[in-house]
Amino acid sequence: MIVVLLAGGMGTRLSEETEMIPKPLVEVGGRPILWHIMKIYEASGFTEFIVCCGYKAHKIKSYFVNYFTENYDLTVHLGENKLEFHGEPSERWKVTLVNTGLETMTGGRIKRIAPYIGDQTFCLSYGDGVADLNIRDVVDFHEEKGRLATVTAVRSPGRFGILDIAEERGVKRFHEKPDNEAGWINGGFFVLEPGVFDFIDDDATSWEKSPLERLAAAGQLSAFQHHGFWKPMDTLRDQRELDEMWRSGNAPWKRWH
């Protein structure tokens, strides 16, 4: 199953870091937050990724193109025009990097990678949040419910959009960033059927607005309720908190060895 990662935004709330690099490359414990998210998926057996690039796309492409050069010992055979890398790869990922546009909204980025998905179920995540989540559990839940889309719901203060969850964990309504309201919110980590592409109009469509609202209204959005750790990296303070967790050996999202 392919994992789609949204990594094209400008990350303006983390401008201290994102003036030079895209937000998904901001480091936690010496590794980009994007690497941590991919390791979460790898821990559940998912190793094929599509990264939706936009802002400073060349930086993300360079990171993966130069991955071995940056992370492994190597010998340069100048006379033979050859590089020799030492050691076994710690990550066996297949990564497709797609430039989905600088100004494209989240829904538009998803629609642009439809040709790479075809008719298969796929996962989707934002490139800036981590959780102690077993992705396989979310996929199993999605298959059990049989709806077009499943969102991982997490608890958080009311600065995020609220999910009204009905019986059988179908989402009755999706509404964004209400005032003075707390409850279950969109934590990302979606499992989707290709039918969701029909709910996205164009590049100007925000995934969190009309597509999710319409999927909920059509009875096609399920909520996998995650009671464990979840944290987005929205601000410099968030980055520092995540970095301290990692460096202190207390990173709940580290499910791999």
From TrEMBL:
Keyword entries, A-Z: Nucleotidyltransferase, Transferase
Recorded superkingdom: Bacteria
Enzyme Commission no: 2.7.7.33
Biological processes annotated in GO: O antigen biosynthetic process
Domain Nucleotidyl transferase: 3-208
DNA-binding among keywords: no
MF-aspect GO terms: glucose-1-phosphate cytidylyltransferase activity
NCBIfam families assigned: G1P_cyt_trans (TIGR02623)
Name of this protein: Glucose-1-phosphate cytidylyltransferase
Organism: Roseitalea porphyridii
Gene that specifies this protein: rfbF
